[in-house]
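To fix ideas, we quote verbatim one protein's residues and fold tokens.
>
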Amino acid sequence: MLGLVETKSVSPVFVGRSEELATLNEALARAAAGEPQALLIGGEAGVGKTRLVEEFATAACREGAVVALGGCVEIGADGLPFAPFSTALRALRRELPDELAAAAAGQEEELTRLLPEIGDTFTAQGAGRHDEEGMARLFELTARVLERVAADRTVVVALEDLHWADASTRHLLAYLFRTLRTGRLVVLATYRADDIHRRHPLRPLLAELDRLRTVRRIELARFNREEVGRQIAGILAAEPDPGQVDDIFERSDGNAFFVEELAVCATEGCRAGLTDSLRDLLLVRVEGMPESAQRVARIVAEGGSTVEYRLLAGVARLAEDDLIEALRAAVNANILLPTPAGDGYRFRHSLVREAVGDDLLPGERSRLNRRYAEALEADPTLVPADERVMRLASYWYHAHDPAKALPAVLDASVEARRRHAYSEQLRLLERAMELWDTAPETVRDELRPIDYTEVYPPCGCDPATTPLRYLDLMAEAAVAGRLSGERERALKITKRALHLLEDEGDPLRAAWFWVQRSRLVQAQARGDGWKELGTAQELVRGLPPSEVHAEVLANVANWSMLHEPGPEALSAAERAVEYARMVGAREIELNARLTLGGLIVDAGDLDAGLAEMYEVKQRALEEGVAYVAGRAYVNLPSELEGVGRAAEAVTLLEEGIPFTRRFGLLDTEAWVWANLSKSLYFLGRWDESADAARNALRVGHSAKPQGAGALCLAHLALGRGDLTEAARQLTAARDYLGTHDTMPQQSLPLARIAIGVAAGEGRLVDVRTEVAGSLAAGFPPGTARYGWPLLLAAATAEADARALPVAGPGRAEALARILEAAKKVTTGAPVWLAHERWVRAELARAEGQDTADTWSDVVTAFECLDRPYDLARVRHRLAEALLTASAGDDERDRARELLRLAHAVAEHLGACPLADSVALLAQRARLALTRVPDQRPADPAEALGLTSRERDVLRLVAAGRTNRQIAEELFISPKTASVHVSNILGKLGVSGRGEAAAVAHRLGLFTVDALGPAR
């Protein structure tokens, strides 16, 4: 290699950029204080982006920061997947090996997709599940690793040349910029602004990042005349002639790189360099080198952003002494530079490389690519192992040799899939389809199915002996398009595949493509996907069992459970389980069993259905089927909530959060948060419910779980009387959920909130319109959990509006419709039996026929349920009924206690409408909601008859502890804690822990400090 060489043209003086450097240094200071920073540095080619980053990196190192640089790698016209992140992580591993190992502990296998050297080598088929969240899992892991490494020290990750970035790199950078929350971390990226034309793939990312308030963009302007003069002075080490400065400033227009080139040309007498063509200017000093050096420069220009010395030697085919002399001449001319690692060469500036590359003749370009490919095939160790397959594919493709390019491109597509770089996999597979017809048949006959594409059956009976077919490529490309989010391209591929299959007589393969189209249509908001799924079902009807058949039935069952639950959905789930068992498709079997369990619950057999779902969850955890386990953590608590077992659901959901986070199941985690929000709402833990809903919005990767989070926030806002916020969140939920794929579990809650908002704003006509639309659609089997709240909202709105003139016309018909619908909704669980009584009581109130006995039955039904808000509402109605009748002292005392308890819950939850209604009723009846102070004992706990131990237990209940946590803190058994809690509820006259906490809060039994932090 080379020894010391002379360098020219680069100014040793850093000129200008004081404002930009101050911004970067400020970001460094903020990061050092624990606030992650994200920055974008843009500017035209040659304006000085790299020099600014180098200056900042040097300053950051002086401040004790660890700096990891990574550049987007270009090979020909191709980028390497995740190249800048791999380089940056490799730098961090060199600087902080122990810290990086600790941060990645337990996730080394996943992280090998970015940093292969930290884990075992993967098989050609890849490892782990490939699904829509595979890339998201990798992104989440990368973000968390960087946060952990930067927990105790400041880390700067600088990514250069983003305009060359592959799609996977762009997606990962966007994810980091959106989600980094902790750590002393600065992430900055540079890009060439003048390259970002209207259709450049970086343009949408820049627009997205502009909308993030956490991302700062720095645009580098050209130098002014004074700065150009200082730059020239630095290069010449002398004060330049003013006329020369004027000349160079006019020619360069302040571009720092052109200033350097022009200054050197002027100094060396290269007057030919002062031409009107910038390309000619860039080539002047290249053409001034010896012929051997020019030849080496042309070779390096076609090899990629960086070319390893040994690879260059293999391609140049020069004697080593001659090669080194040629390199020395190129380095002395400041055309090439040794790489920082000292193992290769790169152009000093990409503009020079592009000019040299553009000067190559077409035949010369393909010949050089062939030489690169041949050298790499002869000795694969010439390049880093993680780049080898991709670079070989690029070289053979640009050598225009289909026979060599097709197998190489297919190998590269497998590597891209292994690394979750699905966008790059799709691009490579599209290249393979482009090469297919031009590759010799003998080459195609040697190819085998290249990867595992879910349950797609490779063309032919035995994949090991049957050649790969064009349809197999299309199947791989369709899945890659779906997983990368390139769904329009995937839809086009599936359409072409189905057209080709029209004459094939291959129903299994056609059914597989129709299932893909169903998923894509739903994801693209083109429809609900049933037409495509129904077509697949017809194609497999009557065929022998197969994985495709089982997959189709499992998809049909799941679609039916969400859209049209009932006997046909149950039958499809049973057949999916049966077929999956026949063919040994364990994951499909577990997935179908989970669907089946939910449908059994919806059919009314609660114990059998829930037992099946618990069994599936346990088996999925034991067998490591993370996708099914994650789905179980969503569906099982949902079914538990659906039968009124909210506390049990919360326990499972709190288990599910760390599980889904560990496996990077972002959408699944968002669903878990949304379901947790619902259960906490019913348990009277509204502040926690709001936090959970906001987490669903934050974590969600796609629209539907985010819509569920917005719906939860709308429900909370309605309960707290904030109609404006409820309407805003309702609109957001509708936007997220769309209208293309309606299902009862979404449309009915949306209608219920719309009814509540309209009723709160006094728009009874809109209430009736919304109710009529929902009742016309009906309540399919298994939708009682959504139907009863909607009917209750409708009946309550009619009852509240009874005295209004506008309510008279159409009231009888409206009430009759609600009553008729209520007769058709099941009451298979105590919670829905209680709701049925509540709806009938509200209908009676709407006609002025409700009595204390009517409401007493409703209160009794809710007293055995752990739903403090619902209980408070019906207690308010019972008190109202007691006071409306000719109330004696006993009735007034009972009403006072009911209102006192209802008001305590409403105040605790911040349920303003309920609290106001209770207070108004008490005021009208001249009832005090609190005891007279001078009659109140000094110790309220003693007055309630609580023992010392029960007082300790109540303090922990009020702090939100579970029975197990109470037992641990008081050194008693969980069973004993449970007995104490039951005794306390009886003495307080309340039905649940939430109400007990509210009573303790109202009576001031404990200070905030005494309660301690909630767990």
Q: What stands out?
A: The radius of gyration is 35 Å. The chain is about 65% helix and 5% strand. The first helix runs from residue 18 to 32. Residues 1-8, 120-127, 271-276, 932-937 have pLDDT under 50 and may be disordered.
